[in-house]
TrEMBL record:
GO cellular component: cytoplasm
Name assigned to this protein: Deoxyribose-phosphate aldolase
Any Gene Ontology biological process: deoxyribonucleotide catabolic process
Pathway where this protein functions: Carbohydrate degradation; 2-deoxy-D-ribose 1-phosphate degradation; D-glyceraldehyde 3-phosphate and acetaldehyde from 2-deoxy-alpha-D-ribose 1-phosphate: step 2/2
UniProt keyword list: Lyase, Schiff base
GO function terms (MF aspect): deoxyribose-phosphate aldolase activity
Gene that encodes the chain: deoC
Length: 329
């Protein structure tokens, strides 16, 4: 095979969907994480690189396109979901787009993420767009429902039109170091997802060590997850930069070993433009430019879009608009 053909084959493999692989327990046993070093490195993310002015505005617009606009509340209604989808279609005011020089571009979020019951409403509201609907499933947020019911929920969400499924793992498998059970669980969800992409939520705030975060991430990827995701947003501790660093490096190790790229999604507690810039910087430094695009990077958030719009308004006008103008109804 010529070098050109080899390079082409490598690019195709990198772009292909992660098929998973056999569970390699020896690989898991080799994983080590120095917590102090990880925390020191994470602390430098916001100090080593400064993005200002027009560059910052461009990064924030890119963050919008990587945002899974989310509503996962007990009082969600079809009306609220339709309003969320309207914001997903047009996250920035047309006048603001004109001021940014983007009036001729279509800017939309990465996905709309809702509970299973709201999938048909979201699918109908987003008809005619390329915005995917992501459904949280599999006993979200605790993952303690019977496996039969969790699989059925995934199947029903896909049948209702969800093209992405955010499943939550059983944290007990990680806490008990039962990697075979975790592998089989994620592989079973991947199977019933069919063409829908699978995001595996680890619930990292419930895991005890960064080493277990790394090992759980690797098992999920071996089982065929398309994305690994930090949190449900319902834990006491959700996404953090040290956790994101460890997961990103595990994603990189998997890509180097298998040739397949897996996406990363931090979620929970990410509500400011500053937060978004920090995670984008981490992706750029640890994983490279491809992980700044929505096919490999998502941010799970509900209030983030409003703050980004507020910061972009300040960039173009020099003044902040009232917070309520950018709030989701």
């Amino acid at each position: 095979m010529t070098l050109a053909k080899l390079a082409h084959a490598e690019r195709e493999a990198a772009q292909a969907r992660n098929p998973g692989c056999a569970l390699h327990l020896d690989w898991l046993a080799e994983i080590r994480v120095n917590r102090a070093a990880a925390e020191r490195r994470a602390a430098t993310v916001t100090t080593r690189r400064s993005v200002k002015g027009a560059a910052q505005a461009a990064w924030l617009v890119k963050a919008l396109t990587c945002t899974d606009l989310t509503t996962l509340n007990s009082d969600d209604t079809p009306g609220r979901v339709r309003r969320l989808c309207s914001k997903a279609r047009r996250p920035l005011d047309p006048a603001l787009l004109d001021a940014l020089g983007l009036g001729d571009r279509s800017i939309q979020v990465g996905a709309v993420c809702v509970y299973h019951a709201m999938v048909p409403t979201a699918v109908a509201a987003l008809e005619g767009t390329s915005i995917p609907v992501a459904a949280v499933a599999a006993g979200f947020p605790h993952g303690l429902s019977p496996m039969r019911a969790r699989r059925a929920e995934v199947e029903e969400s896909v049948a209702a039109g969800a093209s992405e499924i955010d499943i939550v793992i059983s944290r007990q498998h990680v806490l008990r170091r039962d990697w075979q059970a975790l592998y089989e669980e994620v592989a079973a969800f991947r199977e019933v997802c069919g063409p829908a992409h699978l995001k595996a939520i680890l619930g990292t705030g419930d895991l005890k060590t960064l080493r277990d975060v790394a090992r759980a991430s690797l098992v999920a990827m071996m089982a065929g997850a398309d994305f690994v995701k930090t949190s449900t947003g319902k834990e006491a501790v959700n996404a953090t930069l040290p956790v994101a660093l460890v997961m990103a490096r595990t994603v990189r190790a998997y890509a180097e070993a298998t040739g397949y790229r897996v996406g990363f999604k931090p979620a929970g507690g990410i509500s400011t433009a500053k937060d978004a810039l920090a995670y984008q910087t981490l992706m750029r430094e640890e994983l490279g430019r491809p992980w700044l695009e929505p096919d490999l990077f998502r941010i799970g958030a509900s209030g983030l879009v409003g703050d980004i719009e507020r910061q972009l308004t300040h960039f173009t006008t020099g003044a902040y608009a009232a917070g309520h103008r950018h709030a989701l109804a």
